Amino acid sequence: MAQIDDLPPLRDVIERHDLRAKKSLGQNFLLDLNLTCRIARSAGDLTNHTVIEVGPGPGGLTRALLHEGAKRVIAIEMDPRALGALEEISAHYPGRLEVIEGDALKVDMASLVDEGPVRIVANLPYNVGTQLLLNWLELDPWPPFYESLTLMFQKEVAERIIATEEDKAYGRLGVIAGWRTHADKLFDVAKECFSPPPKVTSSIVHLTPKANPLPCNLRSLEQVTAAAFGQRRKMLRQSLKSLNVDHLALIEDAGLDPTQRAETVSVEGFVAMANCLDRMRN
Ligand code: SAM
Questions:
Q1: What is the Cα–Cα distance from 25 to 91, expressed in whole angstroms?
Q2: pLDDT value, residue 166
């Protein structure tokens, strides 16, 4: 295991603070500081950056972010048992780590940062990971307050985020992510790297916001993708009936073929349909 600081090994930290993993909090801890440093480096240059980390737990990734030069880390953790371990890291890196105890889903992250630029880096709890990502992707105004998202997901979720048309994993998540960001999968992380090991492989995804995504009303885009992928095996002429508009005119105005299925429609195609839906309803 890498020795990146003078703090004790993570196994000792977990034992000393009685941080036995709780499934209800999605706790699968990374113990290898070589690996957490690799994740921290994959976020890009951290110097001069504030990093927001969700779910630091015993602090393996937190230590790596600080070691790799983050100017400041703001870590949001729901489990009070982890606070003691995080205080030790804070003492080791004076003035650079701020810990907020609470539910990341309820924290207004943009308001935490008074100095940019900001990167968000996290080994996310699986139970709230997708919702957190959607919250970050659906921010208004756009471009958002952060420069990038570097996030660990279950591999299957990572594949849905980066999927484009014709990919098996393509769906609503791929459309929203593809509309507003450039999304890439960087590398897989084997189950054995975690304590306790989860059931499936994980992957790191890196997303950078597009400065000028195609103009589109988010709610309309969500409605069109929900209708189309809600019946993904059906042709658009059938699946879009649920929108309760002249859906055949909508498909035609968007330049699409009514016999297409959702999985063959590009992000641009969904944006065009969302814009047609807006015009029809207003
Ligand atoms: N970052 C650590 C690591 O890589 O070893 C821990 C990652 S573990 C997968 C997820 C962490 O998120 C846990 O520490 C858990 O307590 C915390 N967590 C779970 N739900 C949360 C929430 N809603 N808000 C903030 N933290 C949460």
A1: 26
A2: 86
- Given ligand 1 and candidates 54, 61, 99, 126, which is best to mutate, with the most ligand atoms within 8 Å of its CB? 54
Residues 278, 118: Cα–Cα separation, whole Å: 33
For domain 10-209, give the CATH number: 3.40.50.150
Query: Which pLDDT band, with edges at 50, 70 and 90, does 1 fall under?
Result: low
The structure's pTM equals 0.97
**Average pLDDT for residues 186-199, to the nearest whole number?**
97
pLDDT of residue 215: 97
177-191: average pLDDT = 98
Q: Using CB atoms within 10 Å of the CB of residue 25, give its burial: 0 to 12 exposed, 13 to 18 middle, 19+ buried.
A: middle
Task: Say what the pLDDT of residue 140 is.
Answer: 95
Q: What percent of the chain has pLDDT over 90?
A: 96
The boundaries of every CATH 3.40.50.150 domain in the chain are: 10-209
Query: Which regions of the chain carry the CATH code 1.10.8.100?
Result: 218-281
Show the ligand 1 pocket: residues with CB < 6 angstroms. Answer: 25-30, 54-57, 60-61, 76-79, 82, 103-105, 123, 125, 128
Q: Is the pLDDT of residue 2 over 90?
A: no
Q: Cα–Cα distance between 99 and 37 in angstroms, integer?
A: 20
* CA of residue 25 to ligand 1 center, whole Å: 7
The Cα–Cα gap between 118 and 68 comes to 15
Class of domain 218-281: mainly alpha
Ligand 1 atom at shortest distance from the alpha carbon of 104: 24
Which of 77, 126, 128, 134 most suits a substitution to test ligand 1, by most atoms within 8 Å of the C-beta?
A: 77
